[in-house]
Design goal:
Alpha-Beta Plaits; 11 strands; about 20% strand; three-stranded antiparallel sheet
């Protein structure tokens, strides 16, 4: 049975065939409209994105892999059931090197069962073989130079003035270019809406003065969230960055993420 011919499928095919023509006037108009109005973000009418600059710091040393953040994100943002996550937890297990190998470490194992939502109960290698083990929360990296924004043919993915990278589902045609372009694997195609989806920092919350759900629920405060333009007294992000060595994921790509990590090593990818 042939797939029904719909406007969305037509637009998807046209986008794939004409991606190189994204400078067309209609596309420029779409991008301008999205960036100006912040359509469908859930932000209140009085919210001014130019007066904020959001940033998140993740302290890997504090993460216990409980998965509450991933579960809270699913519930808060109505993420579909199944292997779809706006944020998730990865477990890194670094094995000891083979005797006499001259290596500093052995094999690196990475897993994330159910996005880490149910915790990590089974250890795939004997404890005596483990050199190091830690958990790494993952989410949209809030890139200053976002590959996903650059490849979107209709302007559905855009950089908000406050640093958030957002998707307007009313514009998204489901072509999947942004999913392929994201070097951090942070996007997926929603099986219900057939539009691209990702972490939005719980935009409907932060634009009302609340914290993202993952930050709110974390029992160890492994995630620190703040506003660079409106720092709190004794700002926790400023203090953390001052007192810790922070890094970004895949710095060689030049995307300049605004999600900073402390406690990771070169094995984290």
């Amino acid at each position: 049975m042939k797939r029904p011919f719909t406007r969305r499928s037509l637009l998807g095919r046209l986008a794939a065939a004409t991606a190189c023509l994204v400078v067309a006037p209609a596309v420029r108009a779409a991008k301008a409209a999205v960036k100006t109005v912040l359509v469908s973000t859930g932000a209140p009418k009085g919210y001014d994105p130019t007066q904020h600059k959001w940033l998140m710091v993740v302290d890997v040393n504090r993460c216990i892999g409980c998965g509450l953040c991933a579960e809270a994100c699913k519930l808060e943002n109505h993420v579909p059931e199944g292997p779809f996550y706006r944020t998730w937890i990865e477990r890194y297990i670094i094995k000891k090197p083979e005797p006499g190998s001259g290596e500093t470490h052995g094999e690196v194992l990475v897993d994330s069962p159910a996005g880490g939502m149910n915790g990590f109960h089974d250890v795939p290698v004997p404890a005596d073989d483990i050199l190091q083990s830690f958990f790494v929360p993952k989410l949209c990296n809030l890139c200053e130079h976002s590959p996903c924004v650059q490849v979107c043919p209709v302007g559905a993915t855009f950089d908000a003035p406050d640093g958030a990278v957002l998707i307007d589902p009313k514009y998204c045609i489901g072509c999947g270019f942004c999913i392929q372009a994201c070097p951090y694997g942070c996007r997926f195609m929603n099986p219900v809406t057939h539009t691209a989806e990702k972490c939005t920092l719980c935009y409907h919350r932060i634009s009302r003065g609340l914290k993202p759900a993952c930050v709110e629920i974390c029992p160890t405060q492994a995630r620190i969230f703040g506003d660079l333009k409106n720092p709190e007294p004794d700002d926790p992000i400023e203090a953390f960055v001052r007192n810790n060595k922070v890094q970004v994921l895949k710095p060689h790509l030049g995307t300049e993420p605004r999600v900073l990590y402390a406690g990771i090593d070169r094995e984290v990818r």
